[in-house]
């Protein structure tokens, strides 16, 4: 027999996930961990938090089943608990952008002027298959190693200016980074076009690429 009195308990358990995600800094940690495993010190540095505060946020996420931690020597490295968590985070970004005008306003302030051309995943694949473009991953090298678009070249944004000669001048460059709210690809396209190169950016990033079911490789040969 169904116990209707247990219905509130069920929804309270479900709410643990919502509560864990209901903090901007915890979302920022999820965003970073979607790019690959990281230790607490590294996460704290990138998120602009103290190690103590970062550890507390990670424990909240862990208790909600959103991240896991594994010991690597003296360091505990955290990662997204599953592909479902990445998909949930991606969907949260999409729903928030659709339902809240303030998200678009904040995104415009963060990403800067709309002065770079963007293409979608289908068009990226078409241009690559047609031999018209080369794909460049402008995230930090460790994120590239954790997983990237097959065939992409790794040139972190802070190395791009000094490595321009590695890019065939006859090909258009398609730059991509972490996700829809990542600034690296915007800055990469600005730099490339300023030097006379043809360049566009992927409209989203590796997060959305994976969630859509596209292949990802950890092959380091394309550094």
Catalogue the unreliable spans: none
* Helix count from the secondary structure assignment: 10
Q: How many domains make up the 3D coordinates?
A: 2
Largest sheet: 5 strands, parallel
Walkthrough of the structure:
- There is one protein chain.
- Strand 2 and strand 3 form a beta hairpin.
- This protein has two domains: 4-87, Orthogonal Bundle (Arc Repressor Mutant, subunit A), CATH 1.10.10; 113-211, Rhodanese-like domain (Oxidized Rhodanese, domain 1, 3-Layer(aba) Sandwich).
- Strands 4-8-7-5-6 form a five-stranded parallel sheet, with helices on both faces. Strands 1-3-2 form a three-stranded antiparallel sheet.
- It is an alpha/beta fold and 223 residues long.
- It is globular and about 65 Å long.
- It has helices at residues 7-21, 24-33, 40-47, 51-63, 83-99, 101-111, 121-129, 141-146, 184-194, 206-211, and strands at residues 38-39, 67-72, 75-80, 118-119, 133-137, 153-154, 172-177, 199-205.
């Amino acid at each position: 027999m169904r116990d209707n009195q247990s219905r509130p308990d069920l929804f309270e358990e479900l709410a643990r996930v919502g509560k864990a995600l209901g903090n901007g800094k915890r979302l920022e940690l999820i965003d970073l961990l979607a790019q690959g495993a990281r230790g607490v010190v590294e996460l704290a540095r990138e998120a602009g938090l103290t190690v103590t505060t970062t550890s507390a946020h990670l424990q909240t996420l862990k208790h909600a089943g959103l991240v896991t931690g594994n010991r690597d020597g003296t360091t505990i490295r955290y990662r997204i608990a599953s592909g479902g968590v990445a998909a949930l985070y991606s969907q949260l970004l999409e729903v928030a952008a659709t339902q809240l005008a303030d998200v678009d306003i904040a995104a415009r302030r963060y990403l800067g002027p709309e002065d770079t051309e963007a293409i979608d995943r289908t068009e990226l694949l078409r241009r690559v298959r047609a031999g018209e473009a080369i794909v460049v991953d402008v995230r930090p090298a460790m994120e590239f190693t954790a997983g990237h678009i097959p065939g992409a070249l790794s040139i972190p944004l802070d190395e791009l200016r000094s490595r321009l000669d590695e890019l065939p001048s006859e090909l258009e460059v398609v730059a991509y980074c972490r996700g829809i709210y990542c600034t690296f690809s915007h800055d990469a396209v600005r730099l490339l076009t300023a030097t006379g190169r043809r360049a566009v950016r992927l409209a989203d990033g590796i997060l959305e690429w994976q969630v859509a079911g596209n292949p990802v490789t950890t092959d380091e040969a394309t550094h």
